[in-house]
Amino acid sequence: MDPDLTRSLRLPHEFLSQFLAAAQQHGFQDETFGEVGGLPLVALTKRAPGPRPRVYVSAGIHGDEPAPPQALRLLLDRGVFDHRAVWFLCPMLNPRGYLTGSRESPDGIDLNRDYRSPSSAEVCAHTHWLEHQLPFDLAICLHEDWEAHGFYVYELNRAHAPSLAHPMLEAAASFCPIETAAVIDGRPIAETGIIRPVADPALRDRWPESIYLQASGCRLGYTIETPSSFPLEQRVEALAAAVTQAITAIAGCARPFREPIVD
Questions:
Q1: What ranges do the domains of the chain cover?
Q2: Fewer CB within 10 Å, N side or C side of the chain?
Q3: Phi, psi torsion values for 165, nearest 5 degrees
Q4: For the chain, what is the HEC assignment?
Q5: Is 6 exposed, middle or buried (CB count within 10 Å of its CB: 0-12, 13-18, 19+)?
Q6: pLDDT tier at 260 (50, 70, 90 boundaries)?
Q7: What pLDDT, in 10s, does the model give residues 202-248?
Q8: Are the CB atoms for 146 and 129 separated by under 8 Å?
Q9: CATH: 2.60.40.1920, 3.40.630.30, 3.40.630.10, 3.40.50.450. Which one for 3-251?
Q10: Which residues lie across from 86 on neighbouring strands?
Q11: What pTM was estimated for this model as a whole?
């Protein structure tokens, strides 16, 4: 793992500057959709000709989770975000949290519970930007779990599309074990390493990003989690492997959903 990249996470300006420079080399356009505490909130987009799936990937909503932003940078450097899709990336949604290594924002708000009725500056700005990009065919939110003992996925499949959960688990298993608990994060599993909601998730009082995306029309969404107790490099590689496999699977389907959205 690049030690300079790891260090830069505690310097969000530096991390984002490096990320944007690398993204521009891969054909991305960047947009600053907000600012908090002098730190930018950044999104990147990359178009592709013809009908392509619209794929959104986010990271960095919890400042005590270093693996997700690094995994997104690794995917970028490996050229995963190519001509197969129209891409939307948010590499660091909580830059102030990374300054202190805290899950919440400095205002004490868990941003990933603020999407139903946003009160934080970060989520207000993010949802405003998302309103102009949605809907997505596939959304993947990268996370870590300090209580988990293995990798797992949370699936929201409003389109009843072919599930990508098993391919992602198989890819991640090359780098860390799959979570075997029968209850994960307070929710019973549907299958080993897979959570699928039994009740309508939109009925929850506090929405994470993934539920907001589903409620806004995203057809297939995943929150993917690595166990924070494992070495950082393993967590980064597991996240990157799962995303790579999901993208390969969706790009390999001529009609991955009922009708692809033409950009």
A1: 3-251
A2: C
A3: -60, -50
A4: CCHHHHHHCCCHHHHHHHHHHHHHHCCCEEEEEEEECCEEEEEEEECCCCCCCEEEEECCCCCCCCHHHHHHHHHHHCCCCCCCCEEEEECCCCHHHHHHCCCCCCCCCCHHHCCCCCCCHHHHHHHHHHHCCCCCCEEEEEEEECCCCCEEEEEECCCCCCCCHHHHHHHHCCCCCECCCCEECCEECCECCEECCCCCHHHCCCCCHHHHHHHCCCCEEEEEEEECCCCHHHHHHHHHHHHHHHHHHHHCCCCCCCCCCCC
A5: middle
A6: very low
A7: 777 889 999 999 999 999 999 999 999 999 999 999 999 999 999 99
A8: no
A9: 3.40.630.10
A10: 54
A11: 0.93
Q: Which of 140, 138, 107 minimizes the C-alpha distance to 124?
A: 107
